[in-house]
Write the C-alpha cells for this entry.
Amino acid sequence: MISVQEAKDIISASVPVPKTKKLNLSEAAGKVLSKAVTATTDIPNFRQSCMDGYAIRYEDKDLILSVIGEMAAGTSRQLVIKPGQATRIFTGAPLPEGADTVVMQEKVQYSGNSLFIQDERLTEGLNVRAKGSEIKQGEKAMLPGTLLTPAAIGFLAGIGCSEVEVYSPPDVTIILTGNELQQPGNPLRFGQVYEANSFQLKAALYQAGIVNIQVRTAEDDPKKLQEVLSAALAESDLVLLNGGVSVGDYDFVVQAAEACEVTKRIHKIRQKPGKPLFFGISGEKLVFGLPGNPSSSLTCFYEYVLPALEQWMHQEHRIRNTKATITHEYAKPTGLTHFLKAFYENGSVTPLHAQESFRLHSFATANCFIVLPEESTGCLTGDLVEVHLLPV
C-alpha cells in the first residue's frame, strides 16, 4: 500500500497533455481557453452615448441650442451638428458628427426647439464612450488559461467572437460491475441493491464540465468484464470501473485490466474509505477502479479523479483546502488517512453520522471532508483540523 500523497503524485504525473478543439461560443461555458482571442475590430466601433440626453459641442455649453433631430441606438443615419446645435440622443446611440459631449436629460431646460444646459459639473467628453474604449482592434481580448465564465462568454460575444479554442474535456466511460445491482424504479428481488454509483458519478462529472459520458455494465465474470473494458478503452479517454476492485473471489477488475494491457500504477492506498483503489494507464488513457460502496466511490472520485480531470482540462481545483475547528472529538488508529464526511460553517466543522463506506445518507448533507492523516490518533473538540471543501 502507498500513502495518499504518493497516490496523488503518481496520478498527477500520469495525466496526458490535453487535447484542444474549437467550439461555438454558445457551447463553451465552463471550458478553459487554449488559444488567445484577439479583437478583430474596435469595440465600440463608433463614439457612443452612455446616457439618455442631448449631444452637443462642449464649447457651446453656455449657449441656447437648437435641437435638430435625434439619434437612437441602432441608427445607421449619421447627423451633423454645427455650432449652436444639439441632437436628442439615447443610450447606446452613435454621436452625431461634430458632437463631443452628452448632457443628461435631467440637466437641461427644453422648450419648443430650444435647449438650455443647466449642469455646472459638465466636462468635455462626459457620458461618451470613446471608439475602442472597451477594446481596440488587434488587442488580446482573452488569454489562454482563462475560464469561460458567463461574464467571459458575454464579453467575447460583445466583441464579435463566435467561436473559441478550448482544452477538450475527455470522453468518459463508467463501467458498473456486480450481479446484485438493480436500476432505481424497478422492484428489488432478494439479494439485490439499487445502483447509485452511475448517478452520482455522472452528476459529479457534469459538474466538472464532462458531458460525453457512457455507462456500461459488466457481469461478475472476468472474460465479460475484459470485453466491456476493452470496448470502453476504444471509445473513451478515461474509464471509471465501479466495484470488483478488491481481492475477493468475485473481484475481477485488476485481472481484466491486466488482460487489456493496462499498466497498473496503484492498487491499494493507506486510507479509509477507499483503500482498494486501482489506477492504471493504457497509452494516454487513464483507468480508475473505484470501490463499489457508494460513499467510498464518491470519496475517491473527489480526492483522485476530479483533480486529474481538472489538470487534464487546465481548470482550477474545485476542492479547496482550509483549516477549521472541529466540534466533536474523533478517535482513530494510526496507519490510515481518514476522510470523514462533515459539514463546514463559519470556521467550524462537524463530523456527520453514518461514516460507514456503504452509507450515503450523511454524504447527501456533507459539504466537506475532515482529513485526519495516517499518523494521527484522532482529534479532540476544539482542535484545528484539515478540511477539504467539496464543490457545490
In short: The two ends are 32 Å apart (CA to CA).
